Amino acid sequence: MLNLQAKGFDALATSDTVAMLCTQEQVASNVFIPEQLHNVFALIDIKTFKAKPNSYYYNALKNKPAILLVGLGPQKDVTAETLRNAASTIIQACQDKGLTQIHIVVPLLTAVPDVSRCIAEGAFLSNYNFNRYKTNNDESAPLLQKAVLVCDNPQQLSPMLKEVAVVCSNTLLCRDLVNETTEHANPVTIAKLAKKIAAQHAIQCTVYTKKDITKMKMGLLLAVSRGSIYPPYCIVMRYRGAPSKKESIAIVGKGITFDTGGINLKPTGHIETMRTDMAGAATSIYAIAAVAQMKLPINVHAVIPLAENMISHTAYKPGDVFTAYNGKTVEILSTDAEGRLILADALSFTEKTIKPNAIIDLATLTGACIVSFGEIVAAYLTNDEQLSTALTKASGATGEKIWRLPLYKEYNEEMKSDIADIVNVPAQRNAGTIMGATFLKNFVEDTPWVHIDIAGTAWYSKKRGYVPKYATGFGVRLLYRFIKDLAL
User: What is the pTM of this model?
Assistant: First the structure.
């Protein structure tokens, strides 16, 4: 993990490489150059550097600090995301040049709040690779070991840097788990991991086994897992940050550790990455871990149903009817709409047993979400305006983009079954993301609830700024900020 520190400008005298983020206007006027580096800049010509976003200029002089300039573009266009992505460019440049430590001068940008935080987040989150299965690690560029933020008030940055390190390191661990193969990330191993993490961070953890799930009559979770050699589990993690209070919030994360589609088999081109269908579970685990590590004064539960959706002679089939935890019967029209089934049991269990004041679930639920928003935006649907406002605020702070879709009552008609209470997918496959949430709404009665579909945002087909190709860790920072805002 990256070692983040903050020091004053006197640290520039002993630094080997100094990175500076600058707008086009700052480069034109030279006003961004610290006094301690005037002698260095007197020896180099930066007039040709256009300071376009994510571009960089590198110059190394003998017996002088090397200078790395990173462009921010026009000052009027600079945002928090601009800074995070610029920090990613610093990390990329360090890898290109084989550098393992860097001093980063915090720029003066009054229009953007939390400049230091954004730079720290961008650096930490982009300093990542997943190469544990590479037999020749020389193929991977070395990660940055140390980043020092240089500013006027370094002592004031220490609490912020600690928080960034905790939240972002949990985001990277979330990426690791989602990137992991199903041989090492299945219901059995993830249940063990949850217990290990809970033990490290003063979190209570209960793992309900197949026997327990059968007694609790979680018929949907049992049905989905029937074709797999791995038994289902339901994990409940409890963090008591405000033990004197009854109020709490619950996170529910979909944990399908591999999704073949079942009898409705997924085709080539879609099935290869289905180990990622537990991204909601991974996010939930590491979000509550971050909350516990930062000792936020709030009570949080994470409920994680785990199953593998496989094909075998025991697998569930289209046309089957199963009874959910809350007693509702569900007709199966597609075995590839399995995530909502295990979430349904987990949601009703959470509401009836844990009785939180709010529930937020995350799931790689629908391909329709990717059709609508691509990999850039997560859809969310909710029955509560206050939760919507709070989630939108958290999204704005973290840069993890979300967009609200409607939950009109007219959609309920599409979910009715001729032989059971509801179907798991409507006959007409329209409005897929909305219909997935409409199904889930049947399993939340009175509790304020938000459903976030991270099907596109959990896994990138290419690198985008400070977010790498493949597992992104989307949602850990979003949930942490959302919960932190509620706690304060």
Answer: 0.97
